[in-house]
Specification:
about 110 residues; Arc Repressor Mutant, subunit A; 4 helices; WH_DNA-bd_sf; WH-like_DNA-bd_sf; Molybdate_resp_trans_reg
Length: about 110
């Protein structure tokens, strides 16, 4: 039986809004307290991470990532950023649960090494 994994991407008006990469970046920013450290942890350039953060911040009513106050640098998730993470993970869990049966059947039909 082939091990299948369901991944979730949410589009808005036909354009990618959130997916596992952006969500992982948000989690890394929260964990590391920095966009640059999050980028390093994910093996991506700071510029790429910054552009992804900017793209998310520009489509939500309130930014998901904000500079940490106090002049020491760094970044963290806003309240909306935390809420978006929670909602995405909830949607992901519900989707996985709903797809268990069909994925098991599909897995039995595959011979992927």
């Amino acid at each position: 039986m082939t091990d299948l994994r369901l991944t979730l991407r949410i589009d808005a008006n036909g354009k990618p809004l959130l997916g596992h990469g952006k969500i992982r970046l948000l989690e890394q920013i929260e964990e590391t307290g920095s966009i640059s450290a999050a980028a390093r942890a994910m093996g991506m350039s700071y510029r790429r991470a910054w552009l992804l953060v900017e793209s998310m911040n520009s489509v939500f009513v309130h930014p998901l990532v904000a500079a940490r106050p106090g002049g020491g640098g760094g970044a963290g998730l806003s309240d909306d950023g935390h809420r978006v993470l929670k909602l995405y993970r909830e949607i992901e869990k519900l989707s996985r649960h709903a797809a268990d049966g069909p994925l098991a059947e599909l897995s039995g039909m595959c011979e992927v090494p």
